């Protein structure tokens, strides 16, 4: 049994400031198990008590996990002048300290996982944890067999940094372009663009389509997002080590 103050629960879930909640309690907008809350400091059991704001249940979640289909033009860094992935969230999600577990470039589309769970984010990002990230890539020109094999086998980038082995699946390859999937287990700065650059190819389109076992939901239009479903939460690399 975990007991916390009712104002802490509601503000922690991003629904308002402690001051807002004090007002809402005074005006009877907050109920606990069907009875009007008495004070902001009233303690509730997060597993048993039902807290509602204007009749809407507020469920305590220690952490939040959001799948976003990032459009191009939006950045992952929050210290930039450009619109960032937190700016395009709505409502309470803006106020619960979410950050991207792995960044995508401004001109890259696709799956960004937003969370406030630092440990899980570390597990996704650490090359030692071998969490696979799969991307759809289009490059200019043909990708020759020897170039593919060079990229897959610990290619060295222009600054001397060596990549871990990766896996490429060619979808289409002709003299004008090559379309492929690439799966990597790390996330160096501009990694995929630099891997192809190392064999003199330019990435002209890049989209992340999965992180670990979680695949970007086809129903999410560019800029849309949703919380992970229970099935996806089950395969998230959450560990206590
Ligand atoms: N590799 C890149 O080059 N850019 C991204 O956004 C992600 C991986």
Main β-sheet: number of strands, strand sense, barrel status? 9 strands, mixed
Q: Give the helix level as a range of percent.
A: 10-25%
Give the overall silhouette. Answer: elongated
Alpha-carbon distance between the termini?
24 Å
CATH superfamily of the largest domain: Pseudouridine synthase I, catalytic domain, N-terminal subdomain
Q: What's the quick description here?
A:
By secondary structure, the chain is an alpha+beta fold.
What features would you describe in this structure?
The protein has helices at 6-12, 18-26, 118-125, 145-152, 191-197, 230-234; strands at 3-5, 30-32, 35-36, 43-45, 51-53, 56-58, 65-70, 99-100, 109-115, 133-140, 167-173, 177-184, 203-211, 214-215, 225-227. It is an alpha+beta fold and 241 residues long. Uracil binds next to helix 5.
Summary keywords:
241 residues; alpha+beta; Structural Genomics Hypothetical 15.5 Kd Protein In mrcA-pckA Intergenic Region, Chain A; Alpha-Beta Plaits; 3 domains; nine-stranded mixed sheet; four-stranded antiparallel sheet; 6 helices; binds uracil
Secondary structure: elements and pairs:
Layout: E1 3-5, H1 6-12, H2 18-26, E2 30-32, E3 35-36, E4 43-45, E5 51-53, E6 56-58, E7 65-70, E8 99-100, E9 109-115, H3 118-125, E10 133-140, H4 145-152, E11 167-173, E12 177-184, H5 191-197, E13 203-211, E14 214-215, E15 225-227, H6 230-234
Parallel strand pairs: 9-13
Antiparallel strand pairs: 1-4, 2-3, 2-5, 5-6, 7-9, 7-15, 8-9, 10-12, 10-13, 11-12, 13-14
Bound molecules: uracil.
Residues 104-105, 108, 190-193, 206 line the site of uracil.
């Amino acid at each position: 049994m975990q007991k916390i103050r009712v104002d802490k629960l509601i503000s922690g879930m991003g629904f308002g400031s402690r001051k807002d909640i004090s007002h809402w309690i005074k005006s009877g907008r907050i109920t606990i198990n069907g009875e009007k809350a008495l004070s902001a400091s009233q303690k509730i059991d997060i597993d048993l008590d039902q807290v509602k704001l204007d009749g809407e249940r507020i469920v305590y979640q220690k952490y939040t996990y959001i799948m976003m289909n990032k459009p191009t033009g939006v950045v992952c860094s929050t210290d930039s002048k450009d619109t960032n992935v937190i700016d395009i969230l709505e409502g309470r999600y803006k106020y619960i300290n979410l950050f991207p577990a792995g960044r995508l470039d401004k001109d890259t589309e696709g799956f960004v996982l937003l969370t406030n769970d630092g440990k899980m984010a570390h597990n996704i990002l650490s090359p030692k944890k071998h969490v696979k990230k799969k991307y759809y890539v289009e490059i200019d020109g043909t990708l020759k067999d020897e170039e593919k094999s060079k990229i897959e086998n610990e290619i060295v980038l222009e600054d001397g940094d060596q990549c871990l082995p990766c896996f490429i699946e060619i979808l289409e390859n002709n003299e004008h372009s090559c379309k492929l999937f690439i799966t990597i287990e790390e996330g160096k700065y501009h990694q995929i663009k630099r891997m192809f650059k190392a064999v003199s190819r330019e990435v002209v389109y890049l989209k992340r389509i999965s992180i670990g076992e979680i695949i970007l939901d086809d129903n999410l239009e560019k800029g849309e997002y949703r919380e992970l479903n229970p099935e996806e939460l089950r395969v998230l690399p959450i560990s206590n080590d």
